[in-house]
Amino acid sequence: MPVVGDLRVLLRLPDFRRLLAVRLLSQAADGVFQVALATYVVFSPEKQTSPAAIASAMAVLLLPYSLIGPFAGVLLDRWQRRQVFLFGNLLRAVLAGCTAVLVVASVPDWLFYVSALSVTAVNRFVLSGLSAALPHVTGAEQLVVANSLSPTAGTLAATLGGGLAFVFRLTVVDSDAGVVLLGSVLYLCAALTSLLMARELLGPDRVPDRPRLTDALASTLRGLTAGLRHLAERRDAARSLAAMTVLRFCYGALTVTVLMLCRYAWTTQESEGLALLGVALAVSGAGFFVAAVITPWATGRLGPYGWMVVCAGSAAVLVPALGLTFTPGPVLAAAFVLGLVTQGAKIATDTVVQTSVDDAFRGRVFSLYDVLFNVAFVGAAAVAALVLPPDGRSVPLVVAVAFLYAAVALSVARGANVSRETPSAPMTDGGHVSRET
User: Which of 12, 59, 292, 390 sits in a 20 to 30 Å window from 381, CA-based?
Assistant: First the structure.
């Protein structure tokens, strides 16, 4: 198979292996740090966890991606990327160490969140830089495989890092600060690994007429505005993004519900609750994996809109059927279903956006997509903070989420029918004309 041959060629390239090692260590550390943050906020014996505290933690984890992400590229095109990996990971190692000290010192929550927010904010630069550096360590003919392998491997590393954090917390050291320090050590390892590459190897290439930083940032802001206007002209893409935003909101609200159930409703022991949360995350992750496997087949049979309708409609039926029991078995089954339908709908949405939006605007539209995706999740946590009781058992919230799923299914089905009756204008993509699916 050509892909296998390209993969073998990639792994023979020493600089590619070193860059991949930086990614694996960085994202494994991210997984450890995120689990440490979650366990400190939700499962610390000395803390009375509330949905509001969980919402704050989610904001710390996700908002930097949305607020910094669109502008990170401007700076990455000016800084040497090897130095970004070196000093970015060193900075995160130091900040994570400071966060561990704050955990031990039992400081006010706002100070802890500021420290944790600083760690996650740097992450946007490191991840964007890893993608931007790939063409410098591989040939053009292997770049597609490299772009597939590296992010997938990084996601797996983050997942394994989260699993390592759970195991470390439950079996090695019964301390959230200890888990944070484990993440700090991994960040340090990533920084040291980056030193195996030459300073100028990863670019950026020197550009003599580079615009001033203020002009570049203003241009980025204007570009996002233009992307928003373009999206408003592409009804199918806009409808799909709106539907995905609502689905992400539902997933966020139910995630907070499961966290509170694990913490207070299903067990009186923090360690048992933490273990249940680990199982819930693993089950939901399995749903994500199954979605990645079956969505290409499902969209081939039903089209992306049809698959989104099936995903949202299934959730509308199964969420109340399983979730209203508020017992571990059915709720864990619901977690699997939610992982499957949320990821399945996202893959379908990605397809609609890619085929409906002009190529010149895709990057900007996907930046807006990223903002909507994360803000919806944080907004859901904030709403859950207002609605959920301390033990997470809220019939109104589960029923409301089920209605939202049903509304999305009906809206997407209606939008798909309108699109078939009134096709959008063809869009030109590099000389190629494409239409709605």
Answer: 292
